Structure formats: structure tokens, C-alpha cells
Amino acid sequence: MADPVISLVVERTGDLLIQKIVFLKGVRGQVERLQNDLVRMQCFLKDADQRQDEDARIRNWVSEIRAAAYDAEDIIEIFANKIESIKDKGFVTRLAYYPWRIVSLNKIGKEIESLQTRLDNIAVSREKFGIKNLGEGTRTHGEELQRLRRERFNCRAWVCVSSSYDHKKILRSIIKQLNPKDTKDDKLSRMLEKMEEEELEERLYQDLQDKCYLVVLDDVWKEAAWDCLVRNAFPDSSTSSKVLLTSRKRDVAVHADALSIPHELKTLGKEDSWQLFLRKALGHGDNAGCPPDLEEVGREIVRRCDGLPLAITVVGGLLLGKKELKSEWEKVLNSFNRNLSRSQSGVSAILELSYADLPPNLKFCFLYLGLFPEVSVISVPKLIHMWVAEGIMQKRDAENLEETAAYDDVERLCGRNMVQVVKTTVDARIKSCRVHDLLRELAIRKAEDENFFQIHDTRDGKISAKSRYLAVHSLPLDKNYFGTSIPPLRSLLFFNVHRENISLIFKSFRKLRMLDLENVEMGYNLPKEIGEVRLLRYLGLRRTSIGRLPHSFGCLRNLQTLDIRTTYVMKVSNIIWKLESLRHLYAYDMVCDVPLKIEGLSNLQTLLGIRFDDI
């Protein structure tokens, strides 16, 4: 096996880098490179171990790595501890030590430089001795190859294009991924929102110019979408950059590159299907066994999935929540057979079966996800606020808030593989999610069957007079979109709708609980008629141009969530503190002309982006 001492020292060096990083400012880059070189060197130690007995020079080579690893640990730890020892001293003492710190930084920099030269020489001698990489180290051989491939590119981005292609949205997404440091304070997002299509193309072109980049365009449906993106936004580069396209349509792939043969994905083989099923249905790791009494019925369920990963993961999620009993698995198989007899495809039968098995509250939550556009990445905090505003969440006990119950339901849907996790926080909480398009189609179909909600594209004609939950998708809106026929809406959501000064007659929406106007242009002043919508619990004004709330806003005493992350600094008076039900307040920059009356907001849990001016 590879030298365990070197493995341990490399691990400790990594720990030191994390623990002492605040004290290593100025030399962090050098320390990280040093550690990375030691990690890479480990990949060759297995071959060296096998040949130490036959060649004294190789034994010496391993000893040199070990010595370099020890020296690296000593240099970092001694310096960091010296700096740490003076951090709690008085200001005058710390000031007196400042010149010493500068000298010490210069000294450690030179010592690391010297150590780096030693490692470079060791690497050269490895090639001379013919020592090969046998793939052992802190990374597997495959992981090391993957790391080297990703390090080949200066920048990377992955976007899902989908059938509802939005050119500006895709350009913004790529630019944000190429500039991750600039997206943390949302300034870049606000700037990109104001850009026209040509400006976005020019910005992306400049970001990619002279760089070796990898951009993945996932799920491209139309040749026009490919042409539109590649024509102006991607420079013809001699830097070995790559654009990877995935599509359900072979014609699109051939159009994108007529000189290459598209790689066509196959369904899973019999054994791969079985192992995936066991991981999802039993919650075990790779190569897990199956209880003997369940294997026959389990393999029959897998056979019916036809090697389709989505079908396997969904039916596995369904079984995971049931007892590991043959009778339970047979019930699922029999239900599957009944659905198949209704002329459904195998995957549709499985998705229907999984939906039917959801408890009532989870069915509502799942159907609600169908309101979001195809391939949407859904913010889980926003989704939770929406569910709570709809009144579908109940406290599970005296201590358990509705938000906690809602998050539990997100986890349950993800556990059932009805929803996919996109991002998690550092403490492993789900931050964003998405719904597979086949599951979204199921949600829409079921919602229509149950007259639950309507999704309206502005090409679709009239809005149903019976709609209670309405999502408006895409395309410019007519100024008087709703006309004189206003349905009894409880929820109204806009997605990807861009229209100057759309007119909403708020007194006609007095039953609304949920109103999300993200990206809808309504002018600088929110109409005073908003005060008529007194049942409103959620109001989203993100990325609108609204900069002032009317005094009538104080009438919204049921409002729980207010998102006013607008393109302007939001100016409010003491009206904001009249909203005694308010739990969550989000703003990029909100100016208040009165002190915060926190006693009036006893339910407030989230307060983001507020400053106060004395007027």
C-alpha cells in the first residue's frame, strides 16, 4: 500500500489549511499548490512501494517525498501558531508585531518556494525511474483523471435549454456561472436583468474570449436555439474550448455538428437496473443484497421498468416508504399491472402509481409544483413560503411551525424521487429543487383532472372563469390582460413575463392569497388599490421596478411574506410596521424613514437588506 505516513501528513496539511486559513493570508495560494502537489505525488506511491526492494534509488525517492511532506506541515503549523499567539494581545502590541508579520510572511513564502522546487525535482526524477501512476491516493484514479480534465478549462457552465427556450435567461445563467464570485451579492444579477439581448451576447463573448471554456447546453429541442446561442455569444476559439450539447432529437445534434456522430444514450442493463433499484428501494449502498423472499417480485418490478432510470428511481422511492414485506411489494406490482392494462406506457404507469400512493397533503404539494415552468430551478424557501400562504400546512405539534412542516414535505417528495434535489446548504438542507418534465406533465394532467389550477401561456386564448390557481407563462402580455372577466383567483403567479406597465385591477382580486409579480413591470409606484387585497399572505415583487409602497399597504394585515428585492432602492414609511402577521421580509436595499418598531412585528423570522435614514 502507499506510504501511510505521507497520506496522514497530506491529510493534516489540508486540515491545517482549513483551520488556520485566517492566519495564512498572503501565502494561501502557495500552500494550496503545495498540498495539491503532494496529493498528486501520492498517486505514484503504490508503484514505488512495489519496487522499493529492487531499487535503492526508488527507496530514496519515497523518503524524499516523506521528508518534503513533514517539512510542509512544519512550515505551515509553526507560522500559523505564531500569528495566532498574538491575536488576543492588545492593539498596541499587535501594531508592534505588524512589521514582524510582514517579514515572516516573506520568509514563509521563500520556504514554500524552496519546498516547491524540491517537489518539482522529485517529480522529474519519478519519470527518470519509470514510476507509474497506479491510481492510489486520496483520490481514485478515475477521480484524478476527472480532476485533471476539469482543471483543463478556465471556466465552466451548465444550462438547461428545454423546449420553452428563453434566450436572455440562458445567457444570464451562463454569465453568472462564469462569474461565481460576482453573484454572491446579487449586483451582477441586477445588472444583467437590465441588459438587452445584444448586450448579454457581447458580455458573454467577452467573458469567454481567450479562455479555455467548457459550456454544456443541456436538453436543446430546436435547431434555432442552438444557432441563436452559438452565432453571436461564443467566440471561435483556438484554446481547445468545448461546447457540449444534449438533445432528445438526433436532428438537432447532427445540425450542431454535421462532422461528428452523436453519442446515443442507452437504457440501463439488467444488472445495473437491479442495483439502482436496490439502492432506491432498500436505501442500501452499492452492491447491496436483496432479502431472498423479495428478490423474485423485485426483479419483476425492475423488468417492467425497461431499463429507464426515472421509472426505477420513482418506484424505488415508493417502496422505500413501505415495509420490506413480500405482500407490500406484490401490491405495487399488481397495481402496476392494472395501470399497464389501461394502455399506459411502463414509465407512465409507474409515475401514476407513485402519485396515487402519496398522502393527500403531499399530493397537493406535488401538484403545486406543476405551476412552475419546465426545467425551473425552484427555490425551496420561496416554495415553503408559498405553501404556507396557501394554507395547506398545519403545525405538526405545538412547537412545530408551518415552515418546518413544509420543509419536511419537500424532503418527503425528494425521498420518494418525485422531486430532484438541485442544491443543498452547507448543513445539507435542500436549497433548491426541480421536477423532471415527465413528472411535471403528470402534475399538470392531474391538476386539470381535478380542476386544481390552470397554466396559461399568452398564446392560449381566454382564461377559464373557474380558475382558482393561475400561472401565466412567457411572452409579452397585453396591458389589460384579464379584461373584464376576472376568475375567483386564490393564487396568481407570473413567470418570464415582460411587459411595460401592465395594469392589474387589484380590487377585482380581493380573494387572492398568493401574488407573485416577479419580472413584471408595473412602474415605480405600486398602485394604492393593493390595499384592497386584504387576504393576501404572499407578495413577490422581485426584479420589478417598483420603488415605493403606498400608505394603503398597511391594510395587508394578513401578509406573511414580502419580497421587495426590486431594481430600485425601496422607500417605505411606518406602514411596514403595521403588518403584524409579517414573518419574512426580503429586500436588496430598503430605506425606512422611521426607526424599526420591532415590537409591532412579533412574528418576524426573516429580515434581510434594510437600512434606516433619519429624515
UniProtKB/TrEMBL annotation:
<dbReference type="InterPro" id="IPR041118">
    <property type="entry name" value="Rx_N"/>
</dbReference>
<dbReference type="InterPro" id="IPR002182">
    <property type="entry name" value="NB-ARC"/>
</dbReference>
<comment type="similarity">
    <text>Belongs to the disease resistance NB-LRR family.</text>
</comment>
<feature type="domain" description="NB-ARC">
    <location>
        <begin position="148"/>
        <end position="281"/>
    </location>
</feature>
<feature type="domain" description="Disease resistance N-terminal">
    <location>
        <begin position="5"/>
        <end position="87"/>
    </location>
</feature>
<feature type="domain" description="Disease resistance R13L4/SHOC-2-like LRR">
    <location>
        <begin position="489"/>
        <end position="612"/>
    </location>
</feature>
<dbReference type="InterPro" id="IPR058922">
    <property type="entry name" value="WHD_DRP"/>
</dbReference>
<protein>
    <submittedName>
        <fullName>DH200=94 genomic scaffold, scaffold_10545</fullName>
    </submittedName>
</protein>
<dbReference type="Pfam" id="PF23598">
    <property type="entry name" value="LRR_14"/>
</dbReference>
<dbReference type="InterPro" id="IPR044974">
    <property type="entry name" value="Disease_R_plants"/>
</dbReference>
<dbReference type="Pfam" id="PF18052">
    <property type="entry name" value="Rx_N"/>
</dbReference>
<keyword id="KW-0611">Plant defense</keyword>
<keyword id="KW-0677">Repeat</keyword>
<dbReference type="InterPro" id="IPR027417">
    <property type="entry name" value="P-loop_NTPase"/>
</dbReference>
<keyword id="KW-0547">Nucleotide-binding</keyword>
<dbReference type="GO" id="GO:0098542">
    <property type="term" value="P:defense response to other organism"/>
</dbReference>
<dbReference type="GO" id="GO:0005524">
    <property type="term" value="F:ATP binding"/>
</dbReference>
<dbReference type="InterPro" id="IPR036388">
    <property type="entry name" value="WH-like_DNA-bd_sf"/>
</dbReference>
<dbReference type="InterPro" id="IPR038005">
    <property type="entry name" value="RX-like_CC"/>
</dbReference>
<keyword id="KW-0433">Leucine-rich repeat</keyword>
<feature type="domain" description="Disease resistance protein winged helix">
    <location>
        <begin position="371"/>
        <end position="443"/>
    </location>
</feature>
<dbReference type="InterPro" id="IPR055414">
    <property type="entry name" value="LRR_R13L4/SHOC2-like"/>
</dbReference>
<keyword id="KW-0067">ATP-binding</keyword>
<dbReference type="Pfam" id="PF00931">
    <property type="entry name" value="NB-ARC"/>
</dbReference>
<dbReference type="InterPro" id="IPR042197">
    <property type="entry name" value="Apaf_helical"/>
</dbReference>
<dbReference type="InterPro" id="IPR032675">
    <property type="entry name" value="LRR_dom_sf"/>
</dbReference>
<dbReference type="Pfam" id="PF23559">
    <property type="entry name" value="WHD_DRP"/>
</dbReference>
<dbReference type="GO" id="GO:0043531">
    <property type="term" value="F:ADP binding"/>
</dbReference>
